[in-house]
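Known limitations

Structure tokens in this collection are predictions and should be treated as such. Users comparing against experimental data should check residue numbering before alignment. To illustrate the layout, the record for hydroxymethylbilane synthase is reproduced below. The input appears on top and the generated tokens appear beneath it.
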Amino acid sequence: MRIATRKSPLALAQARLVATRLGEFFGLPVELLPMSTTGDRQAQWSLEKQGGKGLFTTELEEALISGEADLAVHSAKDLPGRTSEKLIIAGYLPRADPRDVLVLRSGVAHPGSEASPRPAPSSPCQKNGALTLATGSPRRRGQLALLFPEASFCEIRGNVETRLEKVASGFAVPGGAPASATAPPSAPAAPATPSAADALHTAPPPAAAAATASAGGRIPVDATVLAAAGLARLGIRTWPGLEFRPLDFGEMVPAVGQGAIAVQTRIDEAARYAPILDPATARAVRVERAFQAALDSGCQTAFAAHAAGDSLYLFHEKTGRRRFPLAEADYHAPADTAKRLLSSLGLL
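Generated tokens:
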């Protein structure tokens, strides 16, 4: 069996997890086919400005369609809302921790939030106690702006280890201009039924700013945000010069599919792989991807959806963070659920 995968250390680690399950169940040798995607090759691009749909998946899908590979393994959060009509997501491995992790350079004071006083500066980068955060994700930036209204932002690219090294050094050389840090506008009025959604935070005024580069184009940075699942799969629990703080769903709604490894194949072969895949993860991710498909969102949109038991956590740049109850019927009709809830927020 041949598995198409990206070449990054994290992608290879995820592909090996799938390969191990395949080998154990089918008793056949498994070969990895590492590939460079457009998103990998264009390391200087701002994914937000260039557009992110399919940048990390298209080449893997082409290998499946041509017959070069039998499976493609993706981080589910990299998948666009709609994939090739010739292929299908057969399912997912059991989901790992879906949370994001705030990665702070050691010695940088933990920044205050809306509910706590802001500490005094402890770093030259922390002007008036504000934090310089490195992230190219509109989803993360929009939610960080809610937590840290005085923060400034810049782009950061590279694999997990590269990003950790940049933050530990205190400087990032972004793949493009400093990121715009426009915060989401004020949230609209709550839906007519009070129990339909809880606003987790009100949106801040657009006060955040882009970080300023020093001589040589380097931008001082204090922190970034990474996925907990990616850190765990790489065996990274600590890093010299850095502190890790997980963010709960009320602070940072994860990306659609975050923490899940997606297995993609040709439509007529999907049933073959069901025994190695996890129905509970598929149940949750189907709901999340229904919201992504309804909004047709990509890397340019500050949007997130995460299904956890009887709750759906939602973030959109126009509404801020919201939490909705999820019933069993909502899981059985994810497209209808997405349409109903997004319409209640005025997003459709």
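For this record: Residues 112-128, 174-197, 204-208 have pLDDT under 50 and may be disordered. Residues 100-247 form one domain. Please report discrepancies through the issue tracker.
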